[in-house]
Amino acid sequence: MMTTPKKELAVAALQNGTVIDRIPSSALFKAVRILGIEKLDKHVTIGNNLESKKLGTKGIIKVADTFFPEDVLNRIALIAPTAKINIIRDFDVVEKFPVVLPQTIIGIVKCDNPKCITNNEPMKTRFELIDPKERVIRCHYCGHSVNAKEAQIK
Q: Is the pTM of this model over 0.90?
């Protein structure tokens, strides 16, 4: 008698909503914070340290009945440039696209320069992408530069 190996989904299927896949495990909870998922009243499934052929381990976020604007999803490119977005309708993937690091990042990254006005006045930070290949961003106010993967998320 021959048995065939069964594959199981590590995270339950989603009828309608958004799936954010291929998030590096170390960046998963930063992605949750950037997207404000902890404030949603929808069904949310978060999987971490899941097996991944491309990343070794990965995180995944599934949010039922929620479709984020693309500019909001692209914010996670700061910390998860490998992330892929899947839009699900009636259990089928109807759209799939990678995240893209935005040219301007407002109110997400904390400036590391203690003298920066954003650390001393009640105002939103603003960073510009100055090197897309190396993912370097620069503070609009003080000129301090940082690699996106090392950026301190608010």
A: no
